[in-house]
Predict the 3D structure of the following.
Amino acid sequence: MLKRIGTTVLQEAIRSGGLLLVVTFGMFALLSLAPGDPVSMYVNVQSLSPEEVEAVRHELGLDRSFPVRYGAWLSRIAQGDFGTSLRSGRPVAQDLWETGWRTLLLTGSAMVLTLLFSSVTAYLSATERHPRWASALTAAGYGLSGVPVYWLGYVVIYVATTRFNVFPVMSGTSTSGAWMFLVPVFVLGLGNGTVSEVTRHLRGHLETVLTEDYIRTARAKGARLWRHLYKDGFVMPLSSLVASKTPYLLGGAVIVEQVFNWPGMGRLAWQAALDRDYPVLLGITLVAALVIRAGHMLKEATQVAVNPQLAS
Amino acid sequence: MSTYVEVRSDPTLWERIRSRKKGKSIAAAYGVLVAAFVTLAYLLSLAGWLPADPDAMDLGAMNQLPSASHLLGTDFVGRDLLSRAMVGTQAFFLPGLLSVGVSLLFGTLFGVLAGFWPERFATPVGLFLQLMESLPKLVLVLLVIALFRPDIYLILLVVGVTNIPATAELLRAKIATLKRKSYIEAALALGVHPARVIGKHILWLHGRGVLLVQATVGMGEAILIETSLSYLGFGVQEPTPSWGNMVALGKDYFFRGELWVSTAPAIPILLTVLGFYLLGDALREPIAERRAS
């Protein structure tokens, strides 16, 4: 069992490694396609003679071939050196480290909320036990996935400030209290636009599982349905959904963090795009890809643990 | 008198399908209606048939609620919100169609290649799919924005490119099951040209549903991304109206209690995106009720 999981994780790690290599290559190709001479970022080209510019170019390694430059850049990335921010001059890795955990906290909690809402809705509509609740929640899910997440943020902030006299706009810093943190989580978790999609997927999966013979047998002998249902009906689809919806939550975090002034990676991405601070954005993209691949690895491991037949 | 015992049984398969169908047709009708309304608003705004000049300021009538003279009210400099919302469709209409067109065209191409000749093409298409799934679209778009400062057409073109592998994969899976069907085999054995089998038997008779769903959902997503980027200040720039930048402009007034200026453009976003999602879900084929064992 453990060996099977280990093998799967290893396979997934190798695949992710390969994919991340392709991602970095694509990023580097994009970088080289971008307009503007990189030399002009380091020195004032106009004040130097052509020979001096050439010397700087050589110094920076810009006169070498594309694969050589890519190799050098990749080896620096691999050592955790993402360069320095064009705006603040600080190492990008440091910025990522300081903001990353806040975004991870936000998106992780929001993901739990999304899955919780969708699971309840899907379970109620698949089992047809409480049809009214099921329809109401399904309708709410559809409504929520169409609501622009920033407007939902405004409404929540407005209600919080006027009705409850609190000011949820600020900081993932600890001084602001626990439920300040819950407000952006609530907005991102329900307003990220994937709730209806996740519910639909889960409900379809549950309906299929509920027609299985072993479920009928379990019902016939009066066993607890849940015990027979949770593995195939919930653990399997939920683990795939975590993996496939992480990109959407990370994207949604860009907007939600901007609305709530949440000092995380999404807000950093927004600021960097405003300033055309591409080393920062490059670092964020790579970290996001890393997180998403980790999600896929978790999914593979979970699914093999539940159903060892899936191990190849 | 005899007593009746009400016998309740689980709904049969047929009852389930029927009950689902009514909701589905309502959802589809709503989606079509939304698409028609958006198209109408786009065409009217192109023709210039607007209730008011979208750029005409009226400082005597700022932040007004809906009234007879301004059906959707006015913004913070007194511009008519209905006219601006109608012109706002121009921000995503053609770019969105471009995005959908690109993802469908190349998605079909790669899907057919990978489905019909899996030994040669399935691996690269699968790799490309996993690659695209490893990047958050919004972050990728922000990176492209930082590097190239593109306009909204190019941005949504990038979004369309990121959707190619998903379309290709759906079509590939569809073709992989179709290829095992005897009538496809028979047609090929009888000497029907593969291009005709692909074009008629596969794409037209079986693939159009998949493609239609992808187109609908893709349009909804394009609108969502355009409005989000315009909200963040990267897409369509003020004074050109977009539903996204209209919401952003009302922000300060919203927190002061003038809720309507931000809400008026948020409503068409909600209704439109919802319409495209509902239509896509309604068009999706019902999944197999019972797993093939």
Observations:
- Residues 169-175 of chain A have pLDDT under 50 and may be disordered.
- Chain A touches chain B through 62 residues (CB under 8 Å).
